[in-house]
Amino acid sequence: xxxxxxxxxxxxxxxxxxxxxxxxxxxxxxxxxxxxxxxxxxxxxxxxxxxxxxxxxxxxxxxxxxxxxxxxxxxxxxxxxxxxxxxxxxxxxxxxxxxxxxxxxxxxxxxxxxxxxxxxxxxxxxxxxxxxxxxxxxxxxxxxxxxxxxxxxxxxxxxxxxxxxxxxxxxxxxxxxxxxxxxxxxxxxxxxxxxxxxxxxxxxxxxxxxxxxxxxxxxxxxxxxxxxxxxxxxxxxxxxxxxxxxxxxxxxxxxxxxxxxxxxxxxxxxxxxxxxxxxxxxxxxxxxxxxxxxxxxxxxxxxxxxxxxxxxxxxxxxxxxxxxxxxxxxxxxxxxxxxxxxxxxxxxxxxxxxxxxxxxxxxxxxxxxxxxxxxxxxxxxxxxxxxxxxxxxxxxxxxxxxxxxxxxxxxxxxxxxxxxxxxxxxxxxxxxxxxxxxxxxxxxxxxxxxxxxxxxxxxxxxxxxxxxxxxxxxxxxxxxxxxxxxxxxxxxxxxxxxxxxxxxxxxxxxxxxxxxxxxxxxxxxxxxxxxxxxxxxxxxxxxxxxxxxxxx
Length: 552
Hints:
Rossmann fold; 5-stranded mixed beta sheet; 5-stranded antiparallel beta sheet; 18 helices; 25 strands
């Protein structure tokens, strides 16, 4: 979309906004030399020609306009633009004397031109408009002012040349949710609020694209009925029959300033998927493949020993601040305060959590700021945004971690457990999941009826001894059967036999206390020769060494 089209669409959106009169006088101030700029004590908004404000004809007479709208823009490199409209209404008690002044000045200048028989342009009709810290807009015909502090204003400005601002409407370009344009543009919007009052500043919807934030992305989770969240997660293919969604929702939202939950359990039980499907449901996204700019996935790596993997670092070679996904999530949440931003730390105990997450945990608990660098000015970030020396953790940032408890992970310290809500997801409902799977995918109904009973039997035996497996394995077991039936044509029992060895029994390990599990599995696999031989080998290892491990 080109610049002229953006300007046209912004003007149309402002004109359609409630409270804007069809007879309002609109001043377009989009030129490059006319761009708004922040100055000491306020804001230079534009330069406009006074004649455009002079009068309108009403029943053969001239009257001043009752409503003025100044359309302005401020550009932030490299591509960010804040379009804003300053709305001024003429009150019955004539508080806005500036509008009357504009009217009379415009009429007087026109008369001077006519009397002197001069062409337009021989007399300067351009006036400069300034927005002050007391919420008024004033104008003058002198040189540009670098400062409009009260002292300077009293000396240089006619007090009649001012009008009270009723509201400011704004829109941001580009419309996508991005840390790239977040901080500077949003800071400017906040500055407008400090000048005229935050209650008078309103964002309007003008442009949309695939990454723009829909209205459903501008609502907090606590405002959404949990029944709607559960149905949304189910519609996305989630199967959580033990109240996991409700417990997760409560743990994530019961505090206003801290949203930190750890999901624990067996591999493949849907921990990461619960976080993703919950976030998508909150944002009103109905597909697992649709773009959601407010979700950030951060796979944790074993070598993380300090906060830089989350909060970034200054790279002397590129002369930029490296912005990892976690910091980008913080920046996006800072830029979009009315939208929940979700960051998922996947497999977070592959490294020592208290090593790399300590700064974040401290900032959350103290409601302080993340200390990123020591420069007095913001640094250029690797994503194109400016990175300040310190950034507070915004209250609309939701941090979700997933952990597995096995020999590949680190124990979670009390320091971390004390600061998070931990939800265990080790209980797996195999029959219910298979029923849900075939309900969503009817083409799997036939193979599920064949492969399901034996898989459920084996799962129940293993789960009783703490060796169960998750939903991921169950779905892949069924889909493998479907692929074989369609392309290979092997006997179903033979496929089940192969799969038990390839995907299920390889998880077995233990000592004497697990002998009962091996004996029960041996009986369950009587008609499956490969699986039975595999279990017999494990029993032999147990007899000889006092322990067994399938993968050795």
